[in-house]
Amino acid sequence: MRTCHLEEAVALHSETMAKDMTLLWGSGSPPCWRIQIMLEEKQLQGYNQKLLSFEKMEHKSQEVLDMNPRGQIPTFKCGNHILNESYAACFFLENQYKSQGNKLIPDSPDAQALMYQRMFEVFTLVEKLVEIVLYNYKVPEGERHDSAVQRNKEALTAELKLWEGYLKKTDCCLAGKEFTLADVVFFPSVAFLFRLGLSSEHHPVLAKYYNSLKDRASIKATWPPTWQLTPGSDMMKNI
């Protein structure tokens, strides 16, 4: 009975803390998804949230601009603290709620160093990914230059080869056998790649990583709702 009461007290405490948090987000946005996964991992369900539409330009609304003058989402408020960068929000939540939910920064200096390294390398992966996506969406098909298409493809292919090598060494998560902050920030980008048709045959190690984590409770609970209703694309099928 005591254990049961303790669990209830922890759950009530978590819910109370979460009610002081607000997240404005967009479905399918990897930065937004990072914060959602983080909140689940730290058992902070029940926070205030509002799903905004990119198509309707709701991320440029006054509601967003009041919290984020850049007019971007995610926009996250925790008490009196506003954190609009997903990395900042993830670090803040881990540091503020260290003893709650899953511990996402390892104690081992080796694992911790690897985690930080991989976390910040994700910026380079996202850069290569965005170059292809923006070129496809913003440049009409008849105006695309084959040389630019090939250059972007080769850059992302080389980048993904690096990540395949990294994951071969750990054979599980990015910093070892445990799920860490590195995976919180990396997984949404990997999922986005497969959403855009990345070949499992060409990238078997990334596919293994993706398939091993997509049913993790925090990821499954926050899976982008638009992805459940609409098909992906084949933009990355030849990468």
Concise structural overview:
Pfam families: GST_C, GST_N_2. This protein has 239 residues and is an alpha+beta fold.
Relative strand content: 5-15%
Biggest β-sheet: count, sense, barrel? Answer: 4 strands, mixed
CATH class of the largest domain: Mainly Alpha
The unreliable regions are 5-12
Order of helices and strands: HEHEHEEHHHHHHH
Number of domains: 2
State the separation between the terminal residues, measured CA to CA: 55 Å
**CATH architecture annotation name of the largest domain:** Up-down Bundle
The tally of strands reads 4
Can you tell me the CATH topology of the largest domain?
Glutathione S-transferase Yfyf (Class Pi), Chain A, domain 2
Helices and strands: which structural class? alpha+beta
Helix-residue proportion: 55-70%
Q: Over all CA atoms, what is the radius of gyration?
A: 19 Å
Number of helices: 10
If you average the pLDDT, what whole number results? 90
Family: Belongs to the GST superfamily.
Domain GST N-terminal: 19-101
InterPro entries: Glutathione-S-Trfase_C-like, Glutathione-S-Trfase_C_sf, Glutathione_S-Trfase, Glutathione_S-Trfase_N, GST_C, Thioredoxin-like_sf
Protein name: Glutathione S-transferase rho
